[in-house]
Design a protein that fits this description.
The protein is mainly alpha-helical. Helices cover 72% and strands 0% of the residues.
């Protein structure tokens, strides 16, 4: 296949820097990123910290499981002061993990 070269004009160095940043985040060379963007290929994925997201999802599942176990005890025995304390701890951990997940995805979408 014969390669064809085209030139584009940008308004500033800042535009080039943004393109380079997006290309790097997608794990692509500048020209490859521009070509895929222009052709609207879906293979341009922003490279997120997939391990961090996976770890947070696993931890959220654990915290949800803990809350379910606490709920079962509450439904069986009624309100137990010690369990109310544990529920607050679990809810704080879930809130912290949710905030971390939001922060990671927000950075990804705002690149």
């Amino acid at each position: 296949m014969k390669r064809i070269q085209i030139n584009i004009r940008l308004k500033s160095q800042d535009d080039i820097d943004k393109i380079d940043k997006h290309a790097s985040a997608a794990g692509l060379k500048r020209s490859e990123y521009i070509r895929k963007s222009a052709l609207r290929e879906r293979s341009i994925l922003i490279n997120t910290d997939k391990k961090a997201i996976r770890d947070i999802r696993v931890e959220l599942a654990r915290e949800g499981n803990n809350l379910n176990q606490i709920a079962k005890v509450l439904n069986t025995y009624g309100i137990v002061p010690d369990l109310v304390f544990k529920i607050n701890i679990q809810l704080n951990q879930i809130e912290e993990l949710t905030n971390q997940l939001f922060e990671i995805t927000s950075k990804t979408l705002n690149r």
